[in-house]
């Protein structure tokens, strides 16, 4: 990570201001939420030169669906997809709105961020048609003119665009359609579908979801360009967090620093609620408080990722608040880094993710023996492995798919799995070219985990030297998480922020050498 990352000279977005409050409390016309705020100058050239490949995405879904249709090749010619975007949802008993989040299947099939828009795809002609909510006087008065059909047609990879009142007429022209697959009917109310069409709608169908998920699993070049860009935004935001300790005196300041820098770079939202914890709280996997003082703590953990064009990143870094890792913190850090380095080196098409996950546990066991936390003189590594004792320190999976969702579709986890090794592994399949996933091993010292995984299981507890373990409780935990693209040759690590502990110390120390007034902090 070079120091140029400090100069976050990314221009602010100048896109038109969006107001989405209306007198009626309903507004479907907020156009393209994810694009308007993006700083155009910093958008990758490929994204500038190309449209979001919506038609290819529909065709991918068609191909996967074809493998599931029992009637064979011709049956697909009578199939259509009808998917509705999310509406803007009001907050209860007031005239404000929940933050709009486009429904991810709809976005995958259209690339369109307009609330309550509808997408129709005819598998026979491979035509993609979009229907927009009709113009509403109140909406225009309060929120400005929405995008018109001709603008939508120009901007997006669609064949035809109409207003919603033409939905029945246009769909009625497709006499070949016998099955109209949709995800669910949750947003169907405004469609006013006629009976004939309503009769052929099939919702919540396993084959359709399978086809959607398998299509979303493999990222194309356009999606990869977005993911690389959002990874870059996330890198700089993590760098900013590590560099700003003089103005971070509470966990919430860490979250604020990350969110501020992500937004300045054009990320309107974050991919998920950031996890910002310090000291023993680093042992809580999905810590949500983000509000404790950093005073008198040694360690911190931040798990945060920006979101851009509805695609996310998911990165975790751990750094010492003093600028120097304590001995125990460093030992755990090196353990986790070794788990990540060794498993990452093996990431390539054809490798079973379960195998790398198991390998990460075996590496952890070796390190915990070396540190004296596990009793290596009394028990063999195999006995420890068989007992699942390492799950007390590493209860989650090695990683998960990532894309439009932070825990993306098509991982086929089994949360009912009785084996603690696999219960929380969110990806249960072979790696394939074009998959994007995280590699995020961890090691934690958490009272609750000790109670549940050790104290309640004497056969595991006897393998642990509790006196040695106690010395590590103040570390809380370490997780190192990078975002990986599987390539033909192996992998590409899209995450650029360093995880080298020496480099991290340097970054933190450089920040600590500054004064509060060296930062842009008004309050
Ligand atoms: Mn993650």
Descriptive account of the structure:
With 523 residues, the protein is α+β, with helices and mostly antiparallel strands. The protein has helices spanning 33-36, 45-49, 54-66, 104-110, 137-143, 149-155, 167-172, 195-200, 206-217, 221-242, 251-264, 327-345, 353-370, 381-387, 447-455, 458-461, 466-470, 501-512, and strands spanning 79-84, 118-122, 127-132, 160-163, 179-182, 201-203, 269-270, 275-278, 299-304, 306-308, 311-312, 315-320, 436-439, 442-444, 477-479, 482-486, 491-493. Helix 10 crosses helix 11 (251-264) and helix 12 packs antiparallel against helix 13 (353-370). Bound molecules: manganese (II) ion.
Which features does this protein show?
523 residues, alpha+beta, Creatine Amidinohydrolase, Chain A, domain 1, Creatine Amidinohydrolase, 2 domains, 6-stranded mixed sheet, 3-stranded antiparallel sheet, 18 helices, 17 strands, 13% strand, disordered N terminus, binds manganese (II) ion
């Amino acid at each position: 990570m070079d120091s140029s990352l400090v100069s976050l000279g990314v221009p602010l977005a100048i896109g038109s201001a969006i107001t989405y409050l209306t007198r009626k409390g309903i507004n479907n016309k907020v156009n393209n939420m994810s694009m308007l705020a993006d700083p155009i100058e910093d958008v990758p050239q490929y994204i500038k030169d190309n449209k979001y490949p919506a038609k290819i995405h529909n065709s991918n879904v068609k191909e996967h669906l074809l493998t599931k249709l029992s009637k064979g090749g011709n049956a697909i010619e009578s199939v259509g997809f009808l998917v509705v975007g999310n509406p803007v949802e009001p907050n209860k008993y007031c005239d404000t709105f929940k933050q709009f989040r486009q429904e991810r299947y709809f976005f995958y099939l259209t690339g369109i961020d307009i609330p309550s828009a509808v997408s129709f795809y005819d598998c026979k002609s491979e035509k993609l048609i979009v229907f927009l909510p009709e113009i509403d006087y109140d909406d225009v008065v309060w929120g400005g003119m929405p995008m018109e059909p001709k603008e939508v047609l120009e901007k997006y990879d669609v064949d035809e665009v109409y207003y919603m009142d033409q939905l029945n007429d246009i769909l009625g022209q497709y006499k070949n359609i016998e099955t109209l697959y949709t995800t669910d009917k949750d947003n169907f109310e405004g469609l006013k579908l006629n009976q004939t069409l309503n009769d052929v709608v099939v919702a919540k169908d396993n084959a359709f979801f399978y086809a959607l998920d398998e299509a979303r699993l493999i990222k194309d070049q356009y999606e990869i360009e977005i993911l690389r860009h959002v990874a870059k935004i996330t890198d700089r935001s993590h760098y900013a967090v590590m560099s700003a300790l003089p103005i971070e005196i509470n966990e919430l300041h860490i979250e604020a620093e990350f969110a501020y820098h992500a937004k300045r770079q054009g990320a309107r939202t974050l991919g998920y609620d950031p996890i910002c914890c310090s000291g023993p709280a680093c042992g809580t996997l999905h810590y949500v408080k983000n509000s404790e003082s950093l005073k008198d703590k040694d360690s911190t953990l931040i798990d945060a990722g920006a979101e851009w064009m509805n695609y996310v990143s998911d990165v975790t870094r751990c750094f010492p608040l003093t600028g120097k890792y304590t001995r125990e913190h460093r030992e755990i850090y090196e353990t986790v880094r070794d788990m990540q380095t060794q498993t990452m080196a093996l990431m390539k098409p054809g490798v079973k993710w379960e195998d790398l996950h198991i390998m990460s546990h075996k590496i952890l066991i070796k390190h915990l023996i070396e540190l004296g936390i596990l009793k290596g003189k009394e028990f063999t590594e195999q006995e420890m492995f068989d007992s699942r004792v390492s799950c007390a320190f590493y209860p989650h999976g090695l990683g998960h798919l990532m894309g439009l969702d932070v825990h993306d579709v098509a991982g086929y986890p089994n949360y009912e799995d009785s084996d603690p090794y696999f219960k929380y592994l969110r990806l249960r399949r072979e790696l394939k070219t074009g998959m994007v996933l995280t590699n995020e091993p961890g090691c934690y010292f958490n009272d609750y985990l000790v109670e549940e995984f050790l104290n309640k299981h004497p056969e595991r507890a006897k393998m642990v030297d509790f006196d040695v373990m106690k010395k590590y409780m103040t570390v809380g935990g370490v997780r190192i998480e990078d975002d990986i693209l599987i390539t033909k040759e192996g992998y590409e690590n899209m995450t650029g922020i360093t995880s080298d502990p020496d480099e991290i110390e340097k970054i933190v120390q450089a920040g600590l050498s500054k004064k509060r007034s060296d930062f842009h902090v008004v309050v």
